[in-house]
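[audit] Reproducing an earlier prediction to check determinism. Same input, same settings, fresh worker. If the tokens differ from the archived copy the diff job will pick it up downstream; this log only records the rerun itself.
[audit] input (413 residues):
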Amino acid sequence: MHTPPVTTRPMARRDFLRTTTVGAALLTAAPASLRGAPGANERLAIGCIGVGGRGTDLLNQILSLAAARNVQVTAVCDVWQKNLAAATQRVASQSGQTPRQYTRFHELLGRPDIDAVTIATPDFSHGPILLAALRAGKDVYIEKPMTIDLASANEALDLARAGERVVQVGTQRRSEGRFRGAAKLVASGVLGPLSRVSAAMYFHEPRWARDVSDCHAPDVDWDAFLLHLLPRAFDARLLRQWQLFRDTSNGLPGLWMTHYADAVHLVTGARYPTSAVAHGGVYVWKDGRDTTDTFHALLEYPEGFLFDWGMGLGNSAGVHFTLHGTLGTLDLERWRLSPEGGRNTTLQAGPVPAEPDQSHMDNWLACLRTRERPNADIQFGHQHTVATVMAARALESGQRQRYDPAQRTLTPG
């Protein structure tokens, strides 16, 4: 089978940025609303941007659903040739057709025959690629966190709504039956008014310590990786262990708190916190990281409760996740409901009733045709971005952060 050449070329960084800007302008000029709901017999073409560990998981899910949902992966993009080659082979072996290959996402997005894209790149690039995809009129599945800056989240939400794009954020708990069941339980008022939600996660293993011995400069489109970052020499560790550095991640808030903040919003019905404080540091892993290995944040919600979230990478105590009301406590880790002392004689201790589980990817693929909003719609991505960016900024600034939902801005104080 003939393999098409990888679309990449040597380019000075200033030329790459100029090309990206011009390409974005051209894509913006094309009206996204021209493409309506596809017909049942029309095969949808999907491009996968970022095909490393998480991107490969998404790719495998799409391939497993391709026949049932009448979709095809027709293009893959990654800055590292090793990832690109593996993804190409995976698609070719399962579909019988070799996808086009790119190292620069704007070239993939410039293809009019691509209907939708997945984005599973390092966190710092989520915002720029999401915005470019929406300007190009593509539907999107984007990994969490949706962005690590509020300005990108605001613009992405506006673009998605204006272009009527289907955007699914990779916060999969919105498709899990237990969390959907818990949301109905809390909405019934069985816990009484909530005053506190508490969650924490602890593990003591270097999950981020990916091997860099096989990652070499000639195999990486380094300018494509850096995007808007200041030019610097090739650094395999920055590419492979980007979670450790502030230029490429906002650390534990984006990497892990996102899931918990989104689950709090889902289960309680709350949308945006009003204020946040945070503290943390590097106490265990003295490995040259910029981001913390121990972190704790406290967020206040206008619905009248506090949400405290913590994480530590130097202890393996595991997870707790509890909602505390005046009439009962809901444990979202053990999935148990407990009455509060003797105050509620009608509440019986027991398991949380669950809704049926859904496939998060299948939900997105189905919505590409129905044009309905998916389970983790971009509105919910905007909400978790606000919560996690507030926490990260509170840590960095040493100041409490406040959110104005009318202006969609953060201010210290």
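[audit] rerun output stored. Observation attached for the diff report: Residues 13-172 form a domain with the Rossmann fold fold (CATH 3.40.50.720).
[audit] end
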